[in-house]
Amino acid sequence: MENITFLKLWNTIVRYFTATVFFLVVGLVSSFGMTPNHISASGNTDTISNTHIALPSSWNGLEWLNPFYEISVDPDCDGDGVTCKQEEQDGTDPNDPCDFVLEHQDCTPSTAWKNSDCDGDGVTNQKEKEDGTDPLNPCDLILEHQNCSASNEWKNMDCDGDGVTNEKEKEDGTDPFDPCDLILEHQNCSASNEWKNMDCDGDGVTNEKEKEDGTDPFDPCDLILEHQNCSPSDEWKNMDCDGDGVTNEKEKEDGTDPFDPCDLILEHQNCSPSDEWKNMDCDGDGVTNEKEKEDGTDPFDPCDFIPEHQNCTPSEEWKNMDCDGDGVTNEDEKEDGTDPLDPCDYNPDHITLPQSGDYLTADCDGDGVTNEDEEEDGTDPNDACDFVLDSQTVDPSSTWNASDCDGDGVTNEDEKEDGTDPLDPCDYNPESITLEPSAEWKELDCDGDGNPNDKDPNPLEATAVDDSGSTPALTEVAINILENDDYLPNNDDNNVGVTNLSRIGGTATGVVSFDADTGIMTYTPTELESNSTVTVVYQVCNVLPDPNVCASATVTIEVGANTIDAVDDSYTGSTSGGDIVDSDVLSNDTLNGEPVTLAEVTLTSTPTDELTINDDGSVSVNPGTAEGIYTITYTICEIANVENCDTAMVTVEVVEGMANVIDAVDDSYTGNGDIVDSDVLSNDTLNGESVTLEDVILTSTPTDELTINPDGSVTVNPGTAEGIYTITYTICEIANVENCDTAMVTVEVVEGMANVIDAVDDSYTGNGDIVDSDVLSNDTLNGESVTLEDVILTSDPTDELTINDDGSVSVNPGTAEGIYTITYTICEIANVENCDMATVTVEVTEGMVNVIDAVDDFYTEGTEGGAIPNANVLLNDRLDGGEVTLSNVILTSDPTNSLTINDDGTITVDSGITEGEYTIEYTICERDNPENCDTATVTVIIEEIEVNQMVTPNGDLKNDFLFIRGVSKIKSSTLQIFNRWGVAVYEGKNYDNVRNVFDGRSRGRSSLSVNDYLPAGVYFYIFNYETEKGSFTDTDYIYISR
Q1: Compositional bias of type Polar residues: which residue ranges (predicted)?
Q2: Is 14 left (phi over 0), alpha (psi -120 to 50) or beta?
Q3: What is the DSSP secondary structure assignment for residue 113, as one 8-state letter?
Q4: Fewest CB within a 10 Å sphere: which of 54, 254, 293, 546?
């Protein structure tokens, strides 16, 4: 059919065209169509190339075979696939193929429509329908299906509202329908509000806000966190913008910065950190984050790292830090090679910062005292043995525990457990010693006995050990009493003290001597001590310390029996019988080498038919005895030891008649030159009578040393040395020159002559203090009565008796009735080797009063007067051996002008008293027996504390140092001496006149060097001192003279 041009009326005609067709011929009718005019979108009339009449859908059935079926035709005027009627209903233009409701297309669009591009988006309508996109929506298309030219409108449109036109997006290769696919710099139009409010990168900040912030709206990790104004995407939440291994969402929850790779909670790492993060060093400690995680250290703590693992350069902040608080920067510690993490490993010379933190709480030397406390105490925090024990607040180190600070061989730990001082080498438990003591400890003398610890069996206690020995009767014994003691003799090079030995008790009454140089004690027992055990209690002291260090022990000596010797005798008797003249069987018998007497031995003998030994030792020939030689035995036994006996034989020749009996008796003398009162004849006899030169002829041959003179006196020849010498002499009866006898004279030659000292035995009856007893009362020196100014009286108390220092005798409390003896010795003061011994015998009876003893007292006090501190006259008094109190005695005393003994026994010095020696007596009487009293004397030396005002340091031992009188009463003091310009030249504490003295040398702040002697002149002193009475200050001038 040719193209036909219609008027617009055709629209109406066609619109309402209805045909009724009757089909008379059976045939196929597929369609009936007309070609209407096409009206463009602009409303102009176009040539209609084809007009569609829409057939009812029921024609799909067989109704069309009904010749009477009415077909209603609804045309599609604009070919847009929507009938005109529908378009009218839709309110769209039926003549505008691009104005329709797509969903209302109810007929086949025209080819023209199909090839048209209603929305100008470059995709034909047909293709859009195939694609399922909206041909009326220029922004609803598949870009790849654009098959025609897009309209300019479309090109200038911004389908996705991203501010970039569709044309520009095509040029850029971005998606014009993806508002988040664009080149931001190519935005050439206003972005839509939707785009502005969108969050393309899902970072929770709208695109508009990101543009305002200058951040990239397409970079989810380029944002200002505080500007998040919408919910981030899940992708963003699960992202790790800073690569620190913690997702952005987790960081927001933690309050850490998701864009700061060093701001995170390490335990919340929930994804793999980035390589950049791994190689970073967040804390600047020189160890990468990855290495710190491997090491288990904190990558955010600059002081938590392993120094050996530092694998990058530390930060300047780290270098200037002091991780361990030791005051040395980390950088300096690295340079020094010390550990910046060890507060105890540093170079003290490089301390530039205040010590703090770990250093203060650390215990560098392991002594249990923190460094901070050591600094407060002034001890060395790096010296494990310099600390204050009371400051230990932490557990000491195992090294400290096992160490021995004081070198005493006991570990510090053991000392703490024992409660001893680990810093005091002399305070330890010997049973805890497990280490070798130090050389310093070995050189110490802890107990002050003069024996260094190394050699001392008991280093902590000066010890004297009991000794024992034995000796024959009257025989000296030497015992090394120091051999088993801690103390050393003075001749021992190891002795660091000065040893002194003295006797303080024991039962021995013989002669005791001590040699402190060798440690030897010698003892010579008395005869009375034979066959007994005696003791000597001695005290050994190191007298170098003040006070002296002393110990005591007992020496037990077994004394053997006396040596008794009965010697055979021979006599000549007469047949007429009777006593043999001068016969005495005891005359040549001895006890301990000395002639015996019947006072010492008992004599027993059984008479024979011919002979009898009488009780006095003489021998008698029984009457009627014929001439001949006869024998008889006798026995002597020591009275003191009746089992100590000896037997001898007496031989008697009985003859007719008898010559006179002449007897020359041995003599002994001591002296030099002509021996005073010597006479060898004085003990010789003729028929029992003393001989004279009228009866006998005296002959003797002089020796080199001795001469017996014609008158019988003995002379020591000039030049004779000290020693013992003998000479013999013979006497012959003048009437019978053949009747002779010889004797020996023994002389001990000594230098000069000793005075004759004679201690005489005493006997008393009594109990307690024996009234009027005085063992010296009958003793003499050169025939004169002795006093304690002449002799030294010594005696060892027995269990029962005591000889007091004044010579009186006391019976010890509890002594039973009986007879007891005690010996004493007196030695001449001028010659202490000139001694004699005597025995005191006391018969103790019942009914004796208690022994009351008021003992003299001595005190020293100053001139200020008042009560004497710690003085009481009763302290040393005794009643029956016990202490005296005011409950058992009555105290009486008459005050003097200077002293008063108060009712309680204290002593008061009158005020204003001057220096000197004052005495006062007091009496104590037993309350139960007021007649039992004793009196004593109190002596008080008044000595003022006074500074001598002259110093002459010239070595003459007079005023060589400043002497302060009365320092013994001073508890503490300070002395300052100034020159005339007020400069201190001496400053000292606790002046003692011994070690701490001013000897004229500088000891202050003067320009002179220490030890320089000060020039002569006047100096001013200030002496502050404290006594029991209070504090005092004395100021005055002294003069130094050279």
Answers
A1: 390-402
A2: alpha
A3: H
A4: 546
Q: Are 555 and 467 in contact (CB under 8 A)?
A: yes
Give the number of residues written for the chain. 1042
Q: Which domains does the chain have, with CATH numbers?
A: 73-107 (no CATH), 468-560 (2.60.40.10), 564-655 (2.60.40.10), 662-749 (2.60.40.60), 757-844 (2.60.40.60), 852-942 (2.60.40.10), 946-1040 (2.60.40)
Which three-class secondary structure state does DSSP give residue 1030? strand
For 112, the enclosing helix (H) or strand (E) is helix 111-115
Determine if the pTM surpasses 0.85.
no
pLDDT tier at 774 (50, 70, 90 boundaries)?
Answer: very high
Residues 157-193 pLDDT 10s: 999 999 999 999 999 999 999 999 999 999 999 999 9
Q: How many CB atoms lie within 10 A of CB 504?
A: 11
Sort strands 809-811 and 801-803 into parallel, antiparallel or unpaired: antiparallel
Distances 389 to 369, 384, 421, 422 between C-alpha atoms, Å: 8, 11, 8, 8
Residue type, 319: K
β-bridge mates for residue 662, sequence order: 686
DSSP state at residue 291? H
757: left (phi over 0), alpha (psi -120 to 50) or beta: beta
Q: How far apart are CA 246 and CA 658, in angstroms?
A: 151
Distant-in-sequence, close-in-space partners of 930: CB < 8 Å, separation ≥ 6:
890
Helix (H) or strand (E) holding 536: strand 532-542
Q: Could you write out the three-class secondary structure of 879-902?
A: ECCEECCCCCEEEECCCCCCEEEC
* Cα 151–chain centre separation: 104
Q: What is the three-class DSSP state of 903?
A: coil
Among 246-250, 431-435, 638-642, 874-878, where is mean pLDDT lowest? 638-642
- Rounded to whole angstroms, the Cα distance separating 580 from 597 reads 19
- Listed in sequence order, the residues at least 6 apart from 394 whose beta carbon sits closer than 8 Å to its beta carbon are 363, 368, 369, 370
Of 946, 915, 914, 950, whose CA–CA distance to 1023 is shortest? 946
